[in-house]
Specification:
Blueprint: E1 2-6, E2 9-11, E3 16-18, E4 20-24, E5 27-32, E6 42-45, E7 50-53, E8 55-60, E9 65-66, E10 69-70, H1 75-84, E11 87-94, H2 102-113, E12 119-125, H3 131-144, E13 148-152, H4 163-176, E14 179-183, H5 187-199, H6 207-210, H7 214-231, E15 235-237, H8 243-254, E16 259-263, H9 265-269, H10 280-285, H11 296-307, E17 312-313, H12 322-325, H13 345-354, H14 361-375, E18 393-403, E19 422-432, E20 435-439, E21 442-443, H15 459-473
Parallel strand pairs: 1-6, 2-7, 8-11, 11-12, 12-13, 13-14, 14-15, 15-16, 16-17
Antiparallel strand pairs: 1-4, 2-3, 4-5, 7-18, 9-10, 18-19, 19-20, 20-21
Helix pairs in contact: 3-4, 4-7, 7-8, 8-11
Bound molecules: N-(aminocarbonyl)-beta-alanine and zinc ion (2 copies).
N-(aminocarbonyl)-beta-alanine is lined by residues 61, 183, 288-289, 316, 318, 337-338.
């Protein structure tokens, strides 16, 4: 199968140049000007378009069983919507129940994901601790291509990992050369504040952000960073939403600690007034954790991306329809937490980031694709436009516009947090494994075409990093 992308401008995280791109059997086979057209080659005219690596979303929850229901978007519909938005790979989460075998849960998620239309990998969550968990982490790394483990510091009495679990699991990650990641919110405080607010009669969505103030995230970020720093293991914080957490990351990085952070477009654009919307359904539609914040946090998040203290963008795509959100009609703490975004992430970031002058187009590629590929060991197979890389590309039209609406999006959910927003800068075509899957409004996603992405760990690199940490920690001996 051959596809020639002709006449576009290639844009990567570090350079841009005019070149045709020839894709053969799912890989980039040649880059150059005026490439010949072998017989049987499909040709796409990329005149006026930017040819960029397909987006990688490192944080999705397709068909997740969560808070008494199951996310409405499955691996097929969700990855197909991603393709319509220029995202060609996802890293989803295997989340074992406490006491459940990690390998058993991994098997279940692998089965569900077989219907994916785009390539996918997994982080595996550590929701409990035992010798069996320790062993199975090793099996997942050595035999199944897992190189990252997730820890929820919130969701008490469900999937929360307490400090003893964090310490044991981070130490195991260091041995294995796998990245520990955290959802940084103090679950004890959230639980306490939820009870207190409910006792005061505050039962609606307006109480959701009150139960999770910024300090709840700042404290957890600081604690996780301290644990990782003491053990000498790198750390990745998912959905960083506050100036408090950005500051903790910045301080650690200034001391040489390998700490990384991810941001969601929703936290960059929306503020906590959405929870005071007079329509309960609209307010509940925005319930996700961490919540949207008072607007002053947004500048810190943008500056985190600009300075390089935050490296990636994701969606935390976790969809619940109105009837599912209604489970929390009388108690905000029972509203299933989650919002969509896989289809809008790239366009919203281009519109608000590049068009506004906050980000260069190279930084855009870095934070939507290449940095994620590097951090989770997919680079340069993914996140690059170079010979030998997977032919996962987005042909970007910087002048094209789109009105975002739940009525027209491809996501399997009846709500869109960016409803009514017009974006300038859209994916005109998306190419996955060298095949045109989004062609100017025509979605040609194929059920089951996505492949599992094994991601090797880095035990040797992690040992070096832990030596660096020990060196930085060493106190001068006073005589
Ligand atoms: O509200 C959210 N974010 N739901 C999905 C689970 C998580 O915390 O990532
Ligand atoms: Zn989370
Ligand atoms: Zn999540």
């Amino acid at each position: 199968m051959q596809l020639l992308i002709r006449g576009g401008t290639v844009v990567t995280h570090e350079e841009s140049f005019r070149a045709d791109v020839l894709c053969v059997d799912g890989r980039i086979a040649a880059l150059g000007t005026d490439l010949g057209v072998p017989g049987g080659t499909e040709v796409v005219d990329a005149g006026g378009l930017l040819v960029m690596p397909g987006g990688i979303d490192p944080h999705t929850h397709m068909e997740l069983p969560f808070m008494g229901t199951v996310a409405s978007e499955d691996f097929y519909s969700g990855t197909a919507a991603g393709l319509a938005g220029g995202t060609t790979s996802i890293i989803d989460f295997v989340i074992p129940n406490p006491q459940q075998s990690l390998l058993e849960a991994f098997g279940a998620w692998r089965g569900w994901a077989e219907k994916s239309a785009a390539d996918y990998g997994f982080h595996v969550a550590i929701t409990w601790w035992s010798e069996q968990v320790r062993e199975e982490m090793g099996v997942l790394v050595r035999e199944h291509g897992i190189n990252s483990f997730k820890h929820f510091m919130a969701y008490k009495n469900a999937i929360m990992a307490a400090d003893d679990t964090l310490v044991a699991s981070f130490e195991r990650c260091l041995e294995l050369g796998a990245m520990p990641t955290v959802h940084a919110e103090n679950g004890e405080l959230v639980d306490h504040l939820q009870r207190k607010l409910l006792a005061q009669g505050l039962t609606g969505p307006e109480a959701h952000p009150l139960s999770r103030p910024a300090q709840v995230e700042g404290e957890a970020a600081s604690r996780a960073i301290s644990i990782a720093g003491t053990l000498g293991v790198p750390l990745y914080l998912v959905h960083v939403s506050t100036a408090d957490a950005v500051e903790q990351i910045r301080l650690a990085r200034r001391q040489g600690q390998p700490v990384y952070g991810e941001v969601l477009p929703g936290h960059l654009l929306l503020d906590d007034s959405v929870y005071r919307h007079p329509d309960w359904q609209v307010a509940a539609g925005h319930v996700m954790s961490p919540p949207f914040r008072p607007a002053q946090h947004q500048q810190a998040l943008w500056q985190g991306l600009q300075s390089g203290d935050l490296q990636t963008t994701a969606t935390d795509h976790c969809c619940f329809c109105a009837e599912q959100k209604a489970a929390g009609r009388d108690d905000f703490s029972k509203i299933p937490n989650g919002t969509a975004g896989i289809e809008e992430r790239m366009a919203v970031l281009w519109d608000e980031g590049v068009n506004s002058g906050r980000l260069s187009m190279h930084e855009f590629v870095a934070i939507t694709s290449s940095n994620t590929a590097k951090l989770f060991n997919l680079f340069p197979r993914k996140g690059a436009v170079r010979v030998g890389a997977d032919a996962d590309l987005v042909l970007w039209d910087p002048e094209g516009t789109r009105l975002i609406s739940a009525r027209t999006h491809h996501q399997n959910v009846d709500f869109n947090i960016f409803e009514g927003k017009t974006v300038r800068g859209i994916p005109r075509h998306t190419i996955s494994q060298g095949r045109l899957v989004w062609c100017d409004g025509d979605l040609r996603a194929e059920r089951g075409a996505g492949r599992y992405l094994p991601r090797p760990a880095w035990p040797a690199v992690y040992q070096q990093l832990s030596q660096r940490a020990a060196h930085n920690r060493a106190e001068p001996v006073l005589r």
